[in-house]
Amino acid sequence: MKITTIAFSLMMISLTFTSQGQEIKPIEVKQIMEKVADWQIFNFRNTFTHEKFHHPLDWTNGALYVGMVKWAAMADSDKYYNWLKNIGREHDWKLYYRKYHADDHTVGQMYLDLYKKYGNQNMIEPTKKQFDFIMLHPAQTKMNWDALYCQDRWNWCDALFMSPPVWAKLYNITKEKKYLDFLMVEYKATTDFLFDEDENLYYRDENYIEKRDNGTKVFWARGNGWVFAGLVNILNELDSKSHEYKYFLNIYKRMAEKLLKIQTPEGHWAMSLLGQKYYPTPETSGSSFFIYGLAWGINNGVLDKAKYGKAVDKGWKAMVSHVTEDGMLGYVQGIGEAPGKAYADKTEVYGTGAFLSAGSEVYKLHGGL
Predict the structure, then answer these.
(1) Mean pLDDT of all residues belonging to the chain
(2) Which of the following is catalytic: 103, 158, 205, 313?
(3) Where do the structural domains in the chain lie, given as residue ranges?
(4) Residue 132 falls in the annotated catalytic set
(5) How far from 32 is each of 24, 40, 148, 350, 366, CA to CA, in Å?
(6) In which band, very low, low, confident or very high, does the pLDDT at 43 lie, cut at 50, 70 and 90?
(7) What top-level class would CATH report for the domain 27-365?
(8) Strand 216-217, strand 212-213: pairing
(9) Is pLDDT at 46 greater than 80 in this prediction?
(10) pTM (2 decimals)?
(11) pLDDT tens digits along 182-220
């Protein structure tokens, strides 16, 4: 009996190492992305998530669409583009209801990406009109969390994923520098306010700057995932020789260096980035955004593959291991603002968006065209 138990244990260890050592194949990346995308579309209005069904223009779905557009560009069918276009048409290509709030700008990323493909002016006019209004009537509030109308500016780090890429895309499409100028002023203000120069990470908002969790500074994984993925989505729209590009690239590289150092042995990132010991549960939304950003850096020649490639591969394999047989991405932390809980049987639409974004770059990294 003892010999049999030992043999079984050795077999399981062998299988684990074999799995970890398996080469990532582009076709398999594409297959798992399709499974996850199809599951999410089928369950779009179901309550498999932590929360109730979100409005189609809510930031949660906006983040889903960011990844879904990337998947649509890879897919062998137009059904994903058609699904996204139907959402835009149903809502007259409008942003969500709050004029200044970054969360309600998120869906604009999808609209502008579809415009790039189809050239339909209706897809961008409402966003352009709203952003023109914001520039003519900029929010005057302070960045402090208790200031009146403080979230009319980007005073929480999540906002750096939600709104800035829309401004960058609008600049790229129109070539009107006013959009880029507005982006730079506001992004720098947020970075000056929330970026920790020693740790090269962002605090979620002012309330976390002085907080400590088991003696460590509190850097929320998904919050920094929002920032890191948002940086990539901005960099994709800018001239690589411009000083604006270099500004964002500097932040990106500093974050990438830090993320490499704090990845867990299992391949994910702890929900409190400096507190692995206290947050051992995997979390797939923040981790997927980090994988997306790191893989993009290798693919675009700004990160060394020899240095970062293993981290990307280990991370991707960890994310894939949390996809159910049906295609649901598990271990997505629910809506929040700080490290918390995640469960194998819980998901959220933004987690799917992050996973699809990650897959789009992992696919390229391993030879997918």
Answers:
(1) 94
(2) 158
(3) 27-365
(4) no
(5) 12, 12, 45, 17, 15
(6) very high
(7) mainly alpha
(8) antiparallel
(9) no
(10) 0.94
(11) 999 999 999 999 999 999 999 999 999 999 999 999 999
